[in-house]
From TrEMBL:
Coiled-coil regions listed in the entry: none
Designated name of the protein: F-box domain-containing protein
Stored CDD domains: F-box_AtFBL13-like
One Pfam family recorded for the sequence: F-box
Source species, domain of life: Eukaryota
Domain F-box residue range list: 27-66
């Protein structure tokens, strides 16, 4: 009798478990394909062994993500595994594209440590993606430690000979290139035969001999270049660019007839303005709403007379090196040139910050920021120079609602451990609270991250 009760109770529990019903098998194929699309393709193909129904489902996935991150971690720990892992990765990609029979691919992503010696394989994969009318193409070929390698070792992108004026790039909307070189002529050809290309991001690439992009037939909306080399000038003109981000060495920048340009992020900017950065961006000054300037050596005096009016800039970020405790208040002149400013962000990069004992200086100007609601200071350490920037906003922002303090140090390297930086950040939080809390006007919120 006792055994019967036990079995009966067990049956009740089993019926109450959602796991006792195979919900996944009851889903329609379309839903299963969506689930598979969220996986790296390596994992999606494994499902083919589950049953007859699953055998060919993965071939309907239109997002082919060949993410080799796990293999790269192994390679970074043990150099002896590099050749083995590369062989396995290349075979994996080939096995998938040989078996793949869907007429199109929406996303195609390669993420592995590959270079110029692997050009034959990469060429073939790009041709496959273009043949499948790819919309988003990503070639992330940085080394196993995510470092930028010598440009001479990078894979160079050349268009397949089958691509013509009306070729396979008609569907391309987003192109991301990490550790990939290309020439000016190749870049021009890509833009010419990709009428729907809206995003072009490049990192650690060599673009030679210059970047020259312009013309009404170009649809590019967002263009980003980070840690790229091989050129001394960038010329952009006559198309509907909305956002341009350039992070790298000082170059000659020419912008003209870009009436839709809203976001501009450029660096490294010469603090003394010898590179005439404001004259370079003057043609689009009326349209800008977001401006980021990287000025790493603020010891030199700022040429205030060179600053131009930026009537529609709502968000301004100044990125500055801040090893010393020198006064940085002169850079608020750039903020004063933005009458519509709503968010003022200051990113201070330090490694071994110096603290000095001196009086807090204030800006004597009667300028009032009518719309400034948010001040962000990243890299606040509690030096007098840090405090002065916060006091400036408190004194001159009539609509100030919030101050955000992020003590995170963005510098790296040297003999300091992560624990050392954590201790410095904790000390910075204490300094920020002690210094700023007594100064806050009513209605202004202080947030210390």
């Amino acid at each position: 009798m006792k055994n019967t009760k036990r079995r009966s109770a067990q049956t009740k529990v089993d019926h109450g478990r959602p796991n006792s019903i195979d919900f996944i098998s009851k889903m329609p194929d379309d839903v299963l394909v969506i689930i598979l699309s969220l996986m790296p393709i390596k994992h999606a193909t494994v499902t083919s062994v589950l049953s007859k129904r699953w055998r060919h489902l993965w071939r309907n996935v239109i997002r082919l993500n060949f993410d080799g991150t796990k293999s790269l971690r192994k390679m970074a720990k043990d150099e002896k595994l590099c050749d083995i892992e590369k062989y396995k990765y290349i075979n994996q990609v080939y096995n998938v594209i040989i078996s793949y029979n869907h007429p199109r691919v929406q996303d195609f992503r390669i993420r592995f440590d590959l270079d110029s010696s692997d050009f034959e394989e990469i060429d073939e994969w790009i041709k496959f993606a273009l043949d499948k009318k790819v919309e988003r193409l990503e070639l992330d070929l940085l080394d196993k430690n995510y470092h930028v390698r010598d440009p001479d070792e990078n894979y160079e992108l050349r268009l397949p000979s089958s691509v013509s004026m009306v070729g396979e790039m008609l569907s391309l909307k987003n192109l991301f290139l990490d550790g990939v070189n290309l020439s000016e002529s190749t870049l021009s050809e890509i833009l010419k035969i990709s009428p729907h290309l809206e995003k072009l991001y490049m990192f650690g690439s060599d673009v030679y001999p210059r970047i020259h992009v312009g013309g009404q037939d170009i649809n590019l909306k967002r263009f980003k270049l980070v840690s790229c080399s091989g050129f001394e000038s960038i010329t952009l003109y006559g198309f509907g660019l909305v956002s341009f981000i350039y992070c790298g060495d000082e170059i000659e920048l020419r912008l003209a007839d870009l009436p839709k340009l809203k976001e501009l992020d450029i660096g490294e900017v010469s603090v003394g303005l010898e590179n005439n950065v404001f004259s370079q961006i003057s043609s689009c000054a009326l349209y800008l709403e977001v401006l980021v300037l990287d000025m790493w050596c603020p010891q030199k005096s700022l040429d205030v007379n060179a600053i131009i009016k930026l009537p529609n800039v709502k968000k301004l970020m100044l990125v500055m090196g801040a090893e010393e405790d020198d006064c940085l208040l002169e850079f608020t002149s750039i903020a004063q040139a933005c009458p519509s400013l709503e968010t003022f962000s200051i990113s201070l990069h330090w490694y071994t910050p110096t603290k000095r004992r001196r009086k807090v200086r204030r800006v004597a100007s009667s300028h009032v920021h009518e719309h400034l609601r948010l001040l962000e200071i990243i890299g606040y350490y509690g030096r007098i120079s840090d405090l002065e920037l916060a006091v400036y906003a408190i004194d001159h922002a009539a609509a100030l609602k919030k101050i955000v303090i992020d003590p995170c140090c963005h510098a790296s390297g040297g003999d300091f451990t992560r624990e050392d930086f954590v201790m410095k950040e904790q000390a910075a939080r204490s300094s920020a609270k002690r210094q700023l809390t007594p100064l806050l006007p009513p209605g202004v919120d202080l947030s210390i991250l």
